[in-house]
């Protein structure tokens, strides 16, 4: 309860901010987009992880306003990047299931796009695999409506849930994100890459893009590339950074 109150205050006092982690084409090693990630830094300088405060935001309902703010912020930063010349750039935004189930979610999304002028074709929403398995009918309907706006959908933390292939095929999704845990395993045991391989193959069969997350070393990147994984993000390439830093990082790279 104390943290709930602190979070609400923090949001009001602008202690929350959004950072962006670049996503890289493994063939060209060029950035193609970024994932927006929420951060909370308290006045005494301490960082509180979203793993801790997102559940509280969900439980308290604050996630609705907070999630809308993240969406609008990320859209606005994307427009600024475009103005700075980064026209092909994609922006991925995490969406909580509480947010996703809100009756006004679609309106919030459309308003964020309209108000900021962010091109929907350059926006992607990340939903988790566990989310994808609950209430299939609602999900299928929501995905169809989102699709109509031009925004695309990725399944985050893929491989940690238990989606059946036939079910996955019914969902209008665009991209699978291989969970960090399976990327870490790639260089471990002999069978360590089997799940990553399976997801890459699945993506190919279903016509979905695949991105690996949590890539921390060159060996992982090379194995993923060899396995046919087109995209990756992780500390090897870049840590999440502020919008200003991202703009500089992209311009340096160009
Ligand atoms: O950035 P970091 O690895 O600390 O994020 C931890 C978790 O918090 C990840 O699972 C990530 O998806 C989630 N997360 C980060 N930012 C957001 C956000 O803006 N909205 C939601 N719903 N989850 C987020
Ligand atoms: O669940 P989700 O994919 O949204 O979470 C992304 C989280 O993973 C972010 O909190 C981000 O800071 C973190 N992250 C990104 N790249 C790496 C990495 O290479 N290694 C580790 N350990 N964490 C990473
Ligand atoms: Mn994510
Ligand atoms: Na993830």
UniProtKB/TrEMBL annotation:
Keywords noted in UniProt: Phosphoprotein
Name used for this protein in its record: EAL domain-containing protein
Domain of life: Bacteria
Domain EAL span(s) in chain numbering: 1-254
Gene Ontology MF term list: cyclic-guanylate-specific phosphodiesterase activity
Residues of the full protein shown: 495 to 748 of 753
Keyword hit for Phosphoprotein: yes
GO biological process: phosphorelay signal transduction system
Keyword Phosphoprotein listed: yes
């Amino acid at each position: 309860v104390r943290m709930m109150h602190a979070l609400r205050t923090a949001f009001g006092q602008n202690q929350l901010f959004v950072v962006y982690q670049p996503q890289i084409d493994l063939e060209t090693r060029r950035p193609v987009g970024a994932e927006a990630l929420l951060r909370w830094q308290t006045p005494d300088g301490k960082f509180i992880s979203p793993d801790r405060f997102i559940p509280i935001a969900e439980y308290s309902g604050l996630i609705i306003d907070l999630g809308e703010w993240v969406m609008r912020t990320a859209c606005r930063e994307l427009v600024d990047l475009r103005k700075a010349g980064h026209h092909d750039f994609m922006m991925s935004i995490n969406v909580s299931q509480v947010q996703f189930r809100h009756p006004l979610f679609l309106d919030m999304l459309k308003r964020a796009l309209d108000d900021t002028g962010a091109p929907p074709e350059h926006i992607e929403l990340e939903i988790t695999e566990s989310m994808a398995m609950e209430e299939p009918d609602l999900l299928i309907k929501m995905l169809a409506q989102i699709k109509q706006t031009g925004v695309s959908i990725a399944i985050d933390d893929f491989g940690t849930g238990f989606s059946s292939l036939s079910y996955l095929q019914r969902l209008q999704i665009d991209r699978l994100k291989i969970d960090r845990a399976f990327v870490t395993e790639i260089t471990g045991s002999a069978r360590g890459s089997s799940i990553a391989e399976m997801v890459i193959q699945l993506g190919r069969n279903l016509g979905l893009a695949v991105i690996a997350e949590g890539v921390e070393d060159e060996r992982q990147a090379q194995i993923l590339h060899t396995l046919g994984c087109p995209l990756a993000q992780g500390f090897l390439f870049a840590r999440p950074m502020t919008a200003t830093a991202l703009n500089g990082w992209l311009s340096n790279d160009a």
